[in-house]
Request: fold
Amino acid sequence: MKNSVRSRLPIAAVAAVALILGLSACGSSDSGTTAEGTGKRIVSNPANGKVTLTIGSKNFTEQIVLGEIYSQGLEAAGYKIKKDLNLGSETVALQALKAGQISGYPEYASTALTSFFGVDPEKVPANAQAAYAQANGDFKKQNLEAFPPTPFASANAVGTLKSTAQKLGLTDISDLKGKSQDLTLYGSPECRQRIDCLLGLQENYGLQFKSFTPVDIALRYEVLDKGQADLSILFTTDAQLAAQKNKYVILNDDKHVFPAGNVLFVTDPSTVSKAGPDYEKTITEVQKGLTIPVMQELDARVDIDKQTPEQVASDYLKEDGFVK
Amino acid sequence: MEAGGERMSGLVPHLSLGALGLFGDAFDFIFHQQPAKTGGGLATVGGLDQVGTLAVEQLKVTVLALGLSIAIAFPIGAYLGHRGAGEGMALAIGNAGRAIPELALIAFMAAAIGVGLGNLTMALAVLGIPPILTNTYVGISQVDRNAVEAARGMGMTGGEVIRRVELPLAVPTIMSGVRTATINIVATATIAPLVGVLTLGDFILSRNVYGDEGVLAGAILVALMALALELSLAGIQWLMTSPGLRLGRE
Amino acid sequence: MVSAAPIAEVLLHNRSNPDCIQRNEIFCPGWAVDNFNRYVDPVIQHVVLVLASVCIGFAIAFALSLLAHRHRWLSPTFLGATGVLYTIPSIAFFFLLLPITGRGRTTAIIALTAFTLQIIYRNVTTGLANVPADIKDAGRGMGLTDRPLLWRVEIPLAMPEIIAGLRIATVSTVALATLAVFVNGGGLGVEIYTAGNLTFKTGIVIAGTLAILLALAFDLILVAIGRRATTWRRVASG
Reply:
């Protein structure tokens, strides 16, 4: 019965689609940033043209931007590049790497140690080189290999509105003791199972919350803005934190449940030997400019200014003089 | 569903073992609790308890949203159909409704209004209203005018005509609209975890927590729930259809 | 966006005076005009998803209808089987296929095709069943055997129902194809669901509106095809 109902639709709709498709053809894309040649320029090596690399990343802004930076840098060095930049969580990404679906992807040293190698979060080395050495050692046991770390480190954090923190007198996570049972906490779905997230808050801090609600990672600030979450799990490199210093605040992790991690590009030895020396060299070179303010700025260009990660990565490489 | 897996994997022999194995793991996931995929296996996932909790939540959301869409769409459709007015509008709503992209609707709601059960129910009701409104309208306006005249001749009032003549005759059409609405709503309730309402879709969307077997288990459970709802509604429709009308299939 | 002090040679944008996009307003027309090229690929992928699913769905459903038309006893089986495929939510179907066909466009197309079968099948069989017996008799009287009768009389007369089914299937598939993003199937869903987009109101409004306009455009094209395919109607009434 329902199938015999007919529709009448305005001719205007076709005109609208035609107009929109027409408009799209002449959209602008150039941003014309300054690029000074500084001797850092990546040189394309014709020998690399025989090698195809598939660069992966997890499914949130910072990861996708990193994936794009590595991809475009390696492409400038002459490699053939494929991208698979929306892989989901660390488990999915690691699986894809082990299965040979990707050649490598960026991973936080702290996440690797806690999620893959069972290290307690408070035992993750605070020193970037020490954490790298430990993680790389563990990766090598699984026939994988990690390149040296980025300058910036990122961590999960318990965030809230500044007004909430002031009202409840919150500075440290420990201040939540005796208050958390009346507070709602929002976080990513995997937060429920991660020690550097809900489990750590429950076990190491002994906190129980009124509720924990998993939402998509993209909504971590929306839920605070709309007053639905009292507390939300944020990332320390989030663009929103830098852009709105008077609005959001991060609670101090006084029991060290949320270790900060520098990013390591994880790959496997056979890809390394196949791809030659330009592989590691390009990756460690392009990530040298990635300090915390720079990473926050790049995240902000995607999350706040709504540029595409592809564009943001390309601008970074140009602004930093890696490509022309 | 396992039979389905076997039949389909037969078409792709080199994948058959892996595919079958995963279906087996998925059933294992449904019936037995197991360690979570991340965080060193400190938490447990799966098992009938969690399946039950999530299934109840999905049913709850579906029933709430369906109730809301019936409460809005049915009176309007019935009134317009009875009056024989607003045909263009009633039909246009039905057609426009089909074009609403579910994902955009849910995402927009989350970004503009906020997450949570109440908002989700409203968004899902939006998907249920068009088919119910249109089919109620069509069902009632298509009732044989002779039957209506005969009823009036017997001294029935307008309300009695709707209740005792038009509605019973329109039941098959109206119920077919309700079934379409239900399928739309229960299907879209699968992506509710994006906005903080944990339904069976949690298994599907949080692959990192539940693993591939959890994702597959979620897909199996959602499919079964939709089929079960469709069958129950078909049964309800059969019961509601006046015995004199049962012979003719809708 | 005024540029301030460069750190590590990357210009830090000043966001103290947020524009429409930075305030994440419901719709920012200026951004939409400047960034429309971003939606070209997703629209094309979306069109491919819909066309492939509806065309394959039509081929299968049409063949099933003709079989059931000749062998009536097959009809309940076909109706039941396509009904099950129609009822299984597409998002579940995507993931049921995952162990077999993996992530990607193929998986999305198979699931969407499965969804269209019942709608098209029902309409084709209803159309064929509604052809008046006396017209068929007249055809036979003119010496038409089964096959020419089917192609020259019954199918043309069933055309309005067939087109109506295609319209419903196509419009619904355009909406459902936004879910293909969950299995990496591309399409407009990418501009709604991938990182940074899920809270981006202008982006969601644009992608959602494009999906609706695409549905309308497909619908109008099918109406036009329907007019051409039923010229006999105008001859008969004129």
Summary: Chain A is about 40% helix and 15% strand. Chain A touches chain C through 55 residues (CB under 8 Å). The radius of gyration of chain A is 22 Å. Chain A has a mean pLDDT of 86.
